[in-house]
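User: Fold this, then the next.

Assistant: Folding the first:
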Amino acid sequence: MRIYRHTSGAPRGAAIAIGNFDGVHLGHRAVIERAKAIANGIGAPLAVLTFEPHPRSVFQPGTAPFRLTALRDKVRGLAELGVERLVAHRFDLAFAQKSAEDFVREILVEGLGARHVVVGYDFVFGNRRRGTPAVLRALGETHGFGVSVVDPVTSATGAVYASTRIRDDLTAGRPREAAALLGRPWEIGGRVMTGDKLGRTIGFPTANIALGDYLRPAPGVYAVRVGIEEHGTTRWHAGAANLGWRPTVGGRDLRLEAHLLDFAGDLYGRRLRVALIEHLRGERRFAGLEELKAQIAADCQEARRVLASDHA
């Protein structure tokens, strides 16, 4: 995939899907698939226009982390949908001050020469969010590009595929429900950091991953699948992970610690993907290391059972 941080040098004349696409969930996929179909129909390249950092972090700095996907995750998810051109335009307060009309003229017309634009039903843009799908359609008629608006996409149970609902499921300890809306298990990715090395002393070595800007899901123990990235591929392993403050050993910071089942090897500095499959239990304080060790063994057995029957 070619990634552009500005419209300069980006392909012109494309059918463009626009949105934050945080999570690249099934609703987002519907927008991108519509843009792909239109691109094929009019003989135009397909492109995606998104914004980095996420506008919420610009308008509400200092708030709790909320992102479902880092840019690296988003790129991977879009590439899996066949997107070959991504414009990840820098979003800052100056950019946010552009009127809807200036956004369309400067970015879509002068910058990208858009032939067709596809957005979701709830897409807003421009200063004070005054740009709506209806405004975009009117501006498209003025500037000579087509506009398609994708209606809400719902599951068989009537749930709208939305990032907000996915966040609610994750913070409530419902990773399976979140996965149903995402179309895949939710992941936290990052490089393995040096931790306290306590796990190896009790027979359960863990890989420690920084949470960074990712949303904080419900604390506790999870059955997980851990992907080791290597040479452009990902090798997946069953595992159990604790996300919490480690009260038994006096922990003070929130950590994600993943134990890979039936794995031996050095993971320090390697990039991992930790996919949350099922929330097994909440975090607890134990009387000592022996009680903790016994509970971790039980957690690993439960994770094995869950993952053996899991076909997600």
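Now the next one, as you asked:
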Amino acid sequence: MPVSTLRMAWRNLGRNRRRTGLAVAAIALSVMLVLVYDAVARGYGDWLLATVTGPMLGHVQAHAPEWRKDRAMDRTLVSASRIVTTLRGDPAVASASARVYAPALAALGEEGFAVVVIGLESAAESRANGLLAGLREPLAGRRVLIGKLLADLMGVRAGDVVALVGQGADGSLANDLYTVADLVQTPVDMVNRQAVIMDLGEAQVLFAMPDEAHEIVVQARDPERLDQLVARVAAVPGLSHAEVLDWRRLAPEMLSLLELVRVAWVFVLVLVFVAAAAGVANTMLMATFERTREFGMLLALGTGPGRIVRLILVESVVLGLVGAAIGAALGLGLVALTHGPGIDYARLTGGGPREISFAGLNWSLRLYPTLAVVDVVRVVVAAVVTALLASLWPAARAARLEPARALRE
């Protein structure tokens, strides 16, 4: 593109600074709004994914065939420790742990309560976003954790001794006494209402499951490559005949919710930039009408219609770039201000509960807007392309001008 064309385009935009300023403001406002919405949508998506996959589901799970249907005690994965060790050595795996689930009766006195005993590796589950995130002391021996809502129902406090009675995987009677180390409030509603959590090794002994587990939970280093991770997990010795599923198949309703967020983002993007395109088209069309004689003179002096078209298109691109740069700066600034402290929806709505319960999970009402480089790039590109497309009509009109007629207008 000749430098003279760019210089002329810049000069022409400065002829009517008020109109140009309004067009730049429309583009900047559009870019800022889309970036802020994009940051909220990405933050919501990350929050949703972390809540769904972190505490309970993981990114990938492995089970014995049919176990998810009937939860039979004897449907187990054998050599669980070897499987977990192999998975932890995979560079695509962030963490892996085994779990045992067993129905049982728990009693502090004479009254028994139906519970689910969960045997797990407390050190692995105490990671950030884990089921026992923030746990200070790993479980060991005959010490258990009880969901706070279950403890309130049973009248149990830390330090009490509870009796557990269930059935082992081999059909034997499983019963023993356990000391309540602490009461826990987790993001998983079922755990809060029904669970007694103990060390994996202790659960394996109690329920006659030597080195066996009902579930292997895997966290991915790159959640975008789940299909490859599922294949890698399924190829681990001991899991060749297991049912290996990613979180999308385990919780399809959550996947639909994420897809809805993406569709809403596209809708907002189109809606906002249609408004911006109207402003750019109006600016360029008015500028074209005002410069009809100028274009006629240029055409009469031998300037080709193509040069006129390029001039108008370059003006639009410059308009779009300036507006997009200002809007991106404003949008990034707003996101930076809210990313650290987050957005507290409970406070915005006048207080009330800090969490909501949905789909068996407890959801925090604090959201942390975040942006990726790709978000900024695609919004800026969309703004420039919108400005370019909006100028096609004025450019086509200018290209069809007849020099003699244009000079008389």
